[in-house]
Amino acid sequence: MSTSAGIVAVVVTAVATVLIGMYGVRAARTTSDFYVASRTVTPWWNASAIGGEYLSAASFLGVAGLVLAYGTDMLWFPVGYTAGYLMLLVLVAAPLRRSGAYTLPDFAEARLESAHARRAASILVVTIGWLYLLPQFQAAGLTLRTVTGAPQWAGPVVVALVVLVSVLGGGMRSITFVQAFQYWLKLTALAVPVIFLLLVWQNDGRPELAPPGEPVFEEATSVEVTIDVTIDVPSRVVVTADDDELVLEPGPHDVEAGTVLDFPAGAPIPHASSLTPMAGQSWALPLTAGGDHPLYATYSLIIALFFGTMGLPHVLVRFYTNPDGRAARRTTLAVLGLLGVFYVLPGLYGALGRLYTPELLLTGRTDAVVLVLPGRLVDGFAGEALSMLVTAGAFAAFLSTSSGLTVSVAGVLSQDLLHSRVRSPVTGFRLGAFLALLVPIGIALTSPFLGIADVVGLAFAVAASSFCPLLLLGIWWRRLTWPGAVAGLLAGGGASTLAVVVTILGDPQGGWIGALLAQPAAWTMPLAFLVMIAVSLATQQHMAPGVNRTMVRLHTPENLDLNRGDWDPEDRWRSP
Predict the structure, then answer these.
(1) In what order do the strands lie in the sheet with 237-241?
(2) Residue 51 is part of which domain span?
(3) pLDDT over 50 at 570, yes or no
(4) pTM of this structure
(5) CA-CA distances (angstroms) from residue 333 to 81, 376, 556?
(6) Most buried residue, 156, 194, 254, 455, by CB count within 10 Å?
(7) Are residues 175 and 89 located together in one domain of the fold?
(8) For 175-210, how does the pLDDT look when each residue is reduced to its tens digit (9 = 90+)?
(9) Is residue 573 part of a domain?
């Protein structure tokens, strides 16, 4: 795709986002509009907005990149992302809506009647939000660099500016319109090109996706290395680099940015040292991509994805926007259908990318397979148009998820950090939106590129180890106390966050230590439950005085709960 076409796709998506957001500004006047769209969003509209918000860079780009490199084991990501909403539907959706809260810290304070629980929840909301925003900004840099040649910093800056314009104008009411539009744009951006890609594969005789032996270049291929990279060469190969013939022996080799490597047909495909891709038929076999302990890694990933969804603050805040619990359940059912349709597609891109864009294994940028594949397989104007479409969809993915995360983090910062420093809650929200973006942008601009879906998976692990126990016990167990909740949040959330930091910043570990750190949910989530229950049983004197009334509110349908009286965070601003 030409640079001008890529720029046009990005600009059109950004302008459409801003214009649709401005439409929502017309109705955004109160605090309730900014936080929860005054709880007037209909199920189908809300489901489309949730789909737009939830389908992040990890879904649009990361899943395909993981499938390209690691094969069928990575299909647990789309399965887990979708099934997590089933857990949310069964256990959390309606009671959470009935709580009357605006944010997760609001729920913690209302249920446990404790400012300490609120502060602990606030810290974790910000942590998860920043961790989830990081891959959005890094993926934005990857996308703009791939399609336009722009420097890596341009993507995060452009996304942040568009998000701020959308969010600052109308808050939740504004981005509801934006995210609903972006879901359908993302679905179209993947569904239309994949039809042409499958036709090309069909016309090629439907070649096998995982032939035996190590992967090789089917034809003479030139690969330009855009960043400094260390490649692992599986077997001896003769290449041409800058008109010089080089012999690469098996093992690691450092390649400088700007180097063009020419591989002959049949040459084995080296891979970046940051990847350990599956070779041959092992790519199509389950339980082969989990390092030294693939069974543990697989089940820990399943736990993180299934239970982490109910702990994602930008997802949960959407259920506060429904008018009642019945609408919340209907919204969740619609979301399951929308996600199920979408997640059929990324795996197809990853599988076809293994055949037609294997050089991405060498550069390490497997997340770019969705962007590269249409232009590689479809020639002429059609290929250009399809590439523009997937670029627009990718940019929409960054914008929609970043908008939702910014709203959720800004809501917490404005209520718990800024409410005593500014006079207006709307002003506090807007200032919080700025603060919500500063840290992840700084990390994205200074840290090395990380696997998009891998980082999002770690965010799910933190969410599953903190808010999942808080919500399940808070909704279904009346004996939960604030010391128990805080201790569990610190134990599970703290342990999983530490594991995430070590995994992202430290050197890769082997054996059980590496497996436990890379996929912590299987031990940090049970730890959080055990600590919450044990400490709560030992501190029953700190049970919330109004727990019986709160439990009735959570479990009684709205049309019977006549004396409910929603808790309004405006009171926090009016208090002396």
Answers:
(1) 221-224, 260-263, 237-241, 244-248
(2) 3-205+281-558
(3) no
(4) 0.82
(5) 14, 37, 20
(6) 156
(7) yes
(8) 777 788 888 999 999 999 999 999 999 998 888 877
(9) no
